[in-house]
Write a structure and sequence with these properties.
The complex is a heterodimer of chains A (about 270) and B (about 350). Chain A is of the alpha/beta class and about 270 residues long. Chain A contains nine helices and twelve strands. Chain A has a six-stranded mixed sheet, with helices on both faces. In chain A, helix 4 packs antiparallel against helix 5. Chain B contains 14 helices and no strands. Chain B starts with a helix and ends in a 5-residue tail after the last helix. Classes of the chains: A alpha/beta (about 270), B mainly alpha (about 350).
Chain lengths: ~270, ~350
Amino acid sequence: MTAAHTLQATGLTLGYKDRTVISGFDLTVPPGRITAIVGANACGKSTLLRAMSRLLAPREGQVLLDGKQVHRTPAKELARTLGLLPQSPVAPEGITVADLVGRGRNPHQGMLSRWSVQDDEAVAAALETTQTLDLSDRPVDELSGGQRQRVWIAMVLAQQTDLLLLDEPTTFLDVSHQVEVLDLLTDLNHTRGTTIVMVLHDLNLAARYADHLVALTDGRVHAAGPPGDVLTTDTVRAVFGLESQVITDPTSGRPLMLPMGRHHAVSASA
Amino acid sequence: MTAVEVVTRSRLRRGRRRRLVIALLVVLVVATFAVTLMVGRTVYPPADVVRVILGEDVPGASFTVGRLRLPRAVLGALAGLCFGLGGVTFQTMLRNPLASPDIIGISSGASAAAAFAIVVLGLGGAQVSVVAVIAGLGVALVIYLLSYRDGVAGTRLILIGIGIAAMLDSVTAYVLSKAPQWELQEAMRWITGSLNGSAWADVVPLLAALAVLGPALLGQARNLAGLQLGDDAASALGVRVERTRILLIVAAVGLIAFATAATGPIAFVAFLAGPIAARVTGPHGSPLVPAALVGALLVLVADLVGQFAFGTRYPVGVVTGALGAPYLIYLIIRTNRTGGSL
């Protein structure tokens, strides 16, 4: 189903009121791949995702989807190609899983159009993919954190977009659920070719799951490319101000960062 | 059963329940409406009521039913629909049952302006409605601006609204005190809301407002459902957040203000209709139509109770006020318990 869409930011300057968060920023999202954006707290990661999905108008520069400016694209038209899961969406009180996932169909529905077979099919497929079909009649507020996150992902899947932007999809999840969510996104990428761009907190999970890693510092790209090239001790020092060792992860063959800290280091001479 | 079948069946089941509840609400509204026409100092049989409505001349009934009870029932039902729609729109949009226009000062603003227009400016009819609508929108704007800080947070808006409501209520009291020969009953209208003295002249502007603003609001039902998920999620789903919000506010404030100009701020109807409707329909589908029907039912039932349940006749707002206050307390206790802020 995927046509390779190009998503690109050029000369992007973003900010709120008198504060500039990102300036002169360029990024090309590789189509059909998984891109992870990492960086220290408040470095502009979420701001960047908001701008790429039309939620925040750039002060300068532009975001281009297939060569068209996203801020000039009608909201619904954009929402059929580009999906976004914000960091803290709100589930209305008492809403059931199927109902919430159904709201992802909004960009495909006209003001007066009725619910269609395609809508049911999209919701069913989203529930199956995220393994939440059994939960479909349960209220969202009764679910566990991991289940709830899968339901939100199901909602953006029901939107059936070829590009998916996710703002920290693994926050507040324990490690097994983090892996579960990231595996799910990888499945989507592999089976449907969905282009995925996500902001991640955990550098090592980002390095494991991303094809393309973007490290931000002070609103600029410090390094971008395959995780093996980007995740180095130099990058960790520049981005997080942290001394570290980077070794090869025996499980995945990807780089694995081990923070040094001031304690617990085994003496090098031993 | 395939996944699609599971999804379709559960959707159809939810839809059936919703349609059933809506049909039941319609029946109840119609029944209460009929009772309002029949019952009073003299009780007329349904046949007489029907003949009056069809325009036949029935001795006694033509005046009592046609001139007194019918405008009263129609005005009560229309005001209830408007209060229900306006209230649930605000509650849903701001994701908080306390964010109802009668709590956050919009009804108070419309009411103070209507009282001012009548008592001080000597206006009447549609002019009063216009003044009330302008005041309602003005209050909405003031609350919005005062509570705006990098977006609008529900709690701040509610607290500021409660403060504004208190100020405006005292304006109403002051205006009424300036009208020495003002009848007590008429004054009560601007404090609690009343259907006493309803006339066809009050019905016309309200009917027009509902005919224009009601469909405008219903057309936004999907966007409203999007807004419930938070502003970012809504715009990611293709909802134009700011535009939708302005449309919703103008339509909801308009409905509340027109109804208030006709009946006074019937206490807590806007506040109660949405939560009651959600309780009976379940959280599925748009809350707009069920809440409108519950609003109409609340006003009509409360008016019957106020007129006939006690030795004295109470205005409708006294009864709805007595119903709403415990619910307000319950909501505050519940948020306290769950540790939330408002």
